[in-house]
UniProtKB/TrEMBL annotation:
Domain ABC transporter residue range list: 6-255
SMART domains: AAA (SM00382)
Gene Ontology cellular component list: plasma membrane
Name the record gives this protein: ABC transporter ATP-binding protein
Membrane topology: Peripheral membrane protein
The keyword Membrane belongs to this UniProt entry's keyword annotation: yes
Source species taxonomy: Archaea, Methanobacteriati, Methanobacteriota, Stenosarchaea group, Halobacteria
Subcellular location: Cell membrane
CDD domains: ABC_NikE_OppD_transporters
């Protein structure tokens, strides 16, 4: 089998805080292959952005990879220096469509100047060649090529986000990270942006890492996925498997909380409480306080991600993974503390 493009292995990331080290990501492992569309899903605060930031050398100053590795094409990158990130990874290999386009374009620069700057720093393209390429990409994302000369404020939010997608594609990276790419856009625009992202992924056959809190989006677009809770990966595998036979209670309840094409009229569930924050080591299941099926063992130690199919590709971190399907009898409303009402 060929080497994965990206391999995250047993990754733990902490932030220094006045109360001690906060473990934002704990023992997370997943891979993204060439051309694969991977979705990382979970509520706010689960550690999704922390992982992504570590992948492009963008962790906040008080954040640190304390153990584990991030390999890109087989090379460990988690401890790269700023110069190494700039020279070998950012834009050329991994580029990002960030959460709020409004903040990522310099309001004082024309849109094409952003692209020309990238070309100047990272390539030997002439100005004319760079402009031609950027105009072509503008067309790919449904923008008129002549509009490259405009300033960000002349674009609507949706148009700015499409301009960002064109910029992310500009140096022909192998992996694009789309981190909640449609936050702050209206529903119709969200739909349109996702159509462009899906199209780009198919046309350019690049790998894509989608970060979102919306599990139905992942089911719609991605090939494989990881479900995160409280800094840990609760479940991962092929989208088809997680959709049809979720094995972690959080994956089941998260599915309940979003509309389902199989049953559009069903009532949406809620998961009360919020993902925990961990000071120090994570010593129990991160979902224990919200889980309707938690048992004593779940408090005694943290379950590790285990294979739940014979191929070993579908994995869940739950002591009761082979029972949850029987325990689950339709929508459950959990209360903090884990009891069903
Ligand atoms: N610089 C920081 N210092 C201290 N704690 C932080 C810092 N950045 C993030 N955190 C904490 O780390 C945890 C993970 O945050 P992260 O932003 O990675 O989650 P997320 O799933 O991406 O959420 P969102 O979708 O809201 O961005 C949270 O508890 C958050 O409060």
């Amino acid at each position: 089998m060929s080497e994965p493009l990206l391999e995250v292995e047993d990754l733990t990331i902490q932030y220094r805080t006045s109360e001690g080290p906060l473990t934002a990501v704990s023992g997370v492992s997943f891979t993204v292959d060439e051309g694969e569309y991977f979705g990382l899903v979970g509520e706010s605060g689960c550690g999704k952005s922390t992982i992504v930031n570590a992948m492009i050398g963008g962790l906040d100053d008080n954040g640190e990879v304390v153990s584990g590795t991030i390999k890109y094409r087989g090379e460990e990158i988690q401890d790269f220096t700023e110069a190494q990130w700039n020279k070998t990874i950012r834009w050329k290999e991994i580029s990002q469509i960030p959460q709020g386009s409004m903040n990522s374009l310099d309001p004082l620069k024309r849109i094409d100047e952003h692209a020309l700057e990238l070309a100047d720093v990272h390539t030997d393209m002439t100005k004319k060649e760079a402009l031609e390429r950027f105009k072509e990409l503008f067309e790919t994302v449904g923008l008129k090529p002549e509009r490259v000369k405009e300033y960000p404020h002349q674009f609507s939010g949706g148009m700015q986000q499409r301009a960002i997608i064109a910029l992310a594609l500009f140096l022909n990276p192998s992996l694009i990270i789309a981190d909640e790419p449609t936050t702050a856009l209206d529903v119709i625009m969200q739909d349109q942006i996702f159509k462009y992202i899906d199209r780009v992924q198919e046309e350019y056959e690049m790998s894509m890492l989608l970060i979102t809190h919306d599990i139905s989006l992942v089911f719609e677009s991605c090939d494989s996925m990881g479900v995160m809770h409280g800094g840990q990966l609760a479940e991962s595998g092929d989208v088809y498997d997680v959709f049809n036979t979720p094995r972690h209670p959080y994956a089941i309840l998260l599915q309940e909380a979003f509309p389902d094409v199989r049953d559009p009229k069903r009532e949406l569930g809620t998961i009360k409480g919020s993902p925990p924050q961990h000071l120090g080591e994570v010593a129990e299941c991160t979902f224990v306080d919200r889980c309707p099926w938690a048992v004593e063992e779940c408090r005694q130690r943290a379950p590790t991600l285990e294979a739940v199919d014979t191929a070993g590709e579908h994995r869940a971190a739950c002591f009761r993974w082979n029972e949850v399907h029987e325990l689950y009898e339709g929508p459950v409303e959990t209360t903090p503390g884990g009891e069903s009402p």
